[in-house]
Amino acid sequence: xxxxxxxxxxNVEEVLGPKLLKKLPRFAVNFFKRRIHQDEINDCIMKAEHxxxxxxxxxxxxxxxxxxxxxxxxxxxxxxxxxxxxxxxLGGPExxxxxxxxxxxxxxxxxxxxxxxxxxxxxxxxxxxPVNVIxxxxxxxxxxKIAQMFxxxxxxxxxxxxxxxxxxxxxxxxxxxxxxFVTQSRKYEKxxxxxxxxxxxxxxxxxxxxxxxxLKLKFNLGMIxxxxxxxxxxxxxxxxxxxxxxxxxxxxxxxTDLEWAADIKNKxxxxxxxxxxxxxx
Length: 281
Description:
Layout: H1 12-16, H2 18-23, H3 26-35, H4 38-47, H5 55-63, E1 67-71, E2 83-86, H6 93-106, E3 110-114, H7 116-119, E4 128-130, H8 142-151, E5 155-158, E6 166-168, E7 171-173, H9 180-187, E8 192-197, H10 203-214, H11 226-232, E9 237-242, H12 257-270
Parallel strand pairs: 1-9, 2-5, 2-8, 3-4, 3-5
Antiparallel strand pairs: 6-7, 8-9
Helix pairs in contact: 5-6, 9-12
């Protein structure tokens, strides 16, 4: 039985779950609904021509009036399967923007490891493989899902930082990159494409991220406002820069996988040059 449009609507109470709902006062639930923009997201789904699948990337961007331009498309061999390694400046818009670009190039033939928040975006759920960035606990079958993703004939997009950029000592800073994409690229013989996207979050986001570190909280308070950050980007244009592929054969034992990840992170940062966007606030 096929789903209808209403099956894809966001329900914050469903996301919070019955146990948490019992503990939270109604004003707190309503706060989360506003911060996650439940009404606006559902309005987008109800108005969208393509309310599920790859077409929804474009619908969501159109709804929030975000546009982008692409540099370096000539670096791609359209017949190859790649692992795209991208910086993580925003926490949400980059997934929609790159999803829109990949839809144009690859149709629905791509996957993205993603946090649990994006997994609740039902129209796009088929493209995301859930990775828990809030705690160290992962689902038991995560390793299987990751292996299936990298070994498939899909294009794979990863954000190796795991968390979106923070402001440290007055500078917007990408978090250190994890090594998984290097290990998996070598194992499944897929070249890595460095990918850079412009942009940064608001002072409010950086303040709550800073406060979380000061209070030594396991949960980053800034994440509550990530959907707000998306809607606050209304009317902005972003720049995607595609670098030259890095052959998996070059990822030898002269460096550890963590060191290779750091090297590729540096290559991605270099792609921001001359993109017409200020790198920091």
